[in-house]
Design brief:
The protein is mostly helical and about 160 residues long. The protein has a single domain, classed as Ferritin. The protein is about 80% helix and about 0% strand. The chain contains five helices and no strands. Helix 1 packs antiparallel against helix 3, helix 2 runs parallel beside helix 5 and helix 3 packs antiparallel against helix 4.
Length: about 160
């Protein structure tokens, strides 16, 4: 069964959204690196890699369903942040936006009784719980630590351990 026109458009847009997220996280990584926060940069680079994998998973699913992916234009991401906390707050906000986009696809699949897409997109629903939780945990740590430079150093080191 082929994808409906509406489902094609939603999934095709989500491919762009996932690549856009990767682009945003790479921009954050570059900003962190320029400021000497290589641990935070490492975390963002790995996040960008995950987002690229998410985009490619949707790309592959669309091909399995007989749809030709059409790559859409992306806007230039923000390139600098006033603080590490603000960058991670933006990352959290972005993940919340992605959750909304995924939920919209899920709702549309339910409406269309597109059970294959429902099954496929459920993984993303579950993944977004983890994505938001991880970003929120880091924001909470930044807020708890405040302006303590030693604590910031330790958090940068901790996030640098992510593999």
């Amino acid at each position: 069964m082929k994808l409906s026109k509406e489902m094609f458009e939603l999934l095709n847009e989500q491919v762009r959204n996932e690549f856009g997220a990767a682009y945003l996280y790479l921009s954050m990584a570059a900003d962190f690196e320029s400021k000497g926060f290589n641990g935070f940069s490492n975390w963002m680079k790995l996040q960008a890699k995950e987002e690229t994998e998410h985009a490619m998973k949707i790309y592959g699913y669309m091909n399995e369903r007989g749809a030709k992916v059409k790559l859409l234009a992306m806007s230039e991401p923000q390139s600098s942040w006033s603080s590490c906390l603000n960058a991670f707050k933006d990352a959290l906000g972005h993940e919340q936006m992605v959750t909304s986009q995924i939920n919209n696809i899920f709702e549309s699949a339910q409406k269309e009784k597109d059970y294959a897409t429902l099954s496929f997109i459920k993984w993303y629903v579950d993944e977004q719980v983890e994505e938001e939780s991880n970003a929120q945990e880091i924001v909470d740590k930044f807020e708890f630590l405040g302006e303590d430079k030693k604590a910031l150093y330790m958090l940068n080191k901790e996030l640098g351990q992510r593999q």
